Amino acid sequence: MRKIYFFTMLTAMLFVVTGVMAQKKAKFQTANLKGIWQLCHYVSEVPDVAGTLKPSNTFKVLSDDGRIVNFTIIPGQSAIITGYGTYKQTTSHSYKESIEKNIHLPMLDNKDNVLEFEIEDDDVLHLKYFIAKDLNGNELNTWFYETWKRVEMPAVFPEDVVR
Could you say which of 8, 58, 98, 120 would form a disulfide bridge with 39 (CB–CB 3.0 to 4.6 Å)? Predict the structure, then answer.
């Protein structure tokens, strides 16, 4: 009888410890990263004032299957893919891009790059990432900051769009 009591208590303790350890695992909130994002720049006529967020001709597509594609539209010509690979959110405020090919930042080819992010109002994505060396191996040790705006579908087709 004592053996049954001992094993019952041992099993109960094992479940308690396992439950406590499972709660200690870092769970994070999945962010709404997927979508089409347009690179933007803050433009101001006044020094020391961030100014207005203005769109550029560069886009980032974060698909729901974990693929990433960056492309740039060349006005009056065509569009080019500037980079592609996969991405995966790793914490509440960071995700990892595994870059297969990038013509803008070729030093990232076949490398993982961790980006810290903050999403503002579900439509502005602030990114921060670190690049240690340039393409020639020279020390950069620099943080880069980017601001992206989510591309949304309007309710109706705009009349002023030239097709």
Answer: 58
CA count, 13 A, side-chain hemisphere, 140:
14
Query: Residue 119 — φ and ψ, nearest 5°?
Result: -105, 125
Give the pLDDT confidence of 143-155 residue by residue, as tens digits: 999 999 999 999 9
Three-state DSSP class for residue 118 = strand
Q: How far apart are CA 77 and CA 84, in angstroms?
A: 21
Question: What pTM value is reported for the model?
Answer: 0.80
Q: Report the DSSP pairing between strands 111-120 and 94-102.
A: antiparallel
Q: Which two tokens stand for residue 163?
A: 């097709």
Could you list the beta-strand ranges (E) of the chain.
35-43, 52-62, 67-73, 79-91, 94-102, 111-120, 124-133, 139-150
Q: How far apart are CA 154 and CA 13, in angstroms?
A: 57
d(CA 85, CA 68): 5
Q: For residues 5 and 12, what is the distance between their CA atoms, to the nearest angstrom?
A: 10
Q: How many CB atoms lie under 10 A from the CB of residue 127?
A: 19
